[in-house]
Write a structure and sequence with these properties.
Layout: H1 18-33, E1 41-44, H2 49-59, E2 63-67, H3 71-75, H4 82-94, E3 97-100, H5 103-113, E4 120-122, E5 146-151, H6 160-173, E6 177-182, H7 188-197, E7 204-208, H8 212-221, E8 224-227, H9 237-243, E9 248-251, E10 264-266, H10 271-283, H11 285-301, H12 305-321
Parallel strand pairs: 1-2, 2-3, 3-4, 5-6, 5-8, 6-7, 8-9, 9-10
Length: 325
């Protein structure tokens, strides 16, 4: 079952040439600075760094750059775009403080971008706000199947190929298992072809692009959610699954693993262990119950008050050091 992107949905969000738009945005922001007053410049990821650097040069205001992901994470460490890498590094070097969403990304900034560790502060993300949505998905899928869910971009960074390889091993032990690979991306066709070559395409559903409502519905019918990311700076999706009381399995290469305890963790490349953990969650009722209930409590207790307070403290410290407050 394959559903493509909706007709008329734009293929690009920022226009045909993102890098040109980034620098055009920087010029527009400089004009805005002539009319607006502010105390801190806080920039998120590389697309805003040229604008932030220009503002700092223009106003002398302190700059905080917030790293949610780097070019190294997007490419799995291979074939990083040198232009984007240069912008990322310039932004970090120009910043008074660098905030990263995990210690994993902090290490990347230190070892791959050569940033002074003393200027980097870790502020972990928190669980997103969730809401209930009516279940319109085919619940009959659960009648004779255990359901294993992958939800995210179908691209190298997210490890969909390891999910498919693990599925093959799970099906050898538990043929009544159904796998849902939800999302779109440059590896989607490759994954469809791979399941066919492995002879398991009849056990896979490929949803293509999905909405927030559809994601909530997928979490509700899934028996376990798997995030086998090759390199995940943080990764909020396990929180989303937990808030729908869905047990989770994540890769050890995920930043969220630094703050998530009621989950199972495995190296992304170890498809044997991944398959074993999927089978364990599906067939050991007590384990499933514990991950379901304690995972929900864990995600529910994670709020944005803590990271927001940390960011405010960073602002105040920078302004105090400059005699603004």
């Amino acid at each position: 079952m394959i559903n493509g992107t909706k007709k008329g949905q734009p293929k690009t969000l920022y226009g045909p040439n993102l890098k040109e738009e980034v620098y055009r945005f920087a010029e527009q922001v400089k004009l805005l600075a002539e009319e607006e007053d502010f105390d801190i410049i806080h920039a998120h990821d590389w697309v805003t760094f040229p604008a932030a650097i220009a503002l700092k040069q223009l106003t002398g205001k302190p700059l905080v750059v917030h790293i949610h992901i780097t070019e190294f994470d997007k490419t799995g460490g291979n074939h990083a775009d040198p232009d984007i890498y240069a912008i990322e590094r310039e932004g970090m070097l120009s910043a008074d403080k660098v905030i990263t969403v995990s210690n994993k990304i902090k290490d990347t900034c230190i070892h791959n971008y050569f940033i002074d560790p003393s200027k980097i502060l870790v502020v972990h993300n928190a669980a997103p706000s969730m809401y209930d949505s009516p279940t319109s998905i085919n619940t009959k899928l659960k009648e004779n199947n255990k359901i294993v869910l992958f939800a995210g971009r179908v691209t190298l960074q997210k490890g969909p190929d390891y999910f498919v390889d693990a599925a093959k091993k799970v099906l050898e032990k538990a043929p009544d298992t159904l796998f849902i690979l939800a999302g779109s991306g440059d590896m989607l066709n490759q994954m469809i072809e791979k399941t066919a070559k492995l002879g398991i395409s009849n056990k896979f559903i490929f949803t293509g692009f999905y909405t927030r409502d559809q994601a909530n519905q997928l979490f509700e019918i899934a028996d376990v959610f798997v995030m086998p990311s090759v390199s995940e700076p943080f990764g909020l999706v396990p929180y989303e699954a937990q808030l729908k009381r869905t047990p989770t399995i994540i890769s050890k290469q995920s930043g969220i693993g630094e703050v998530l305890y009621h989950t199972l963790k495995v190296d992304f490349w170890d498809v044997n262990q991944l398959a074993n953990k999927i089978l364990a969650v599906l067939h050991y009722k007590q384990l499933h119950k514990e991950l379901k209930e304690k995972g929900y409590d864990e995600a529910k207790s994670s709020t944005w008050d803590n990271p927001a307070t940390k960011c405010l403290n960073i602002y105040h410290n920078l302004m105090n050091n400059r005699g603004v407050i």
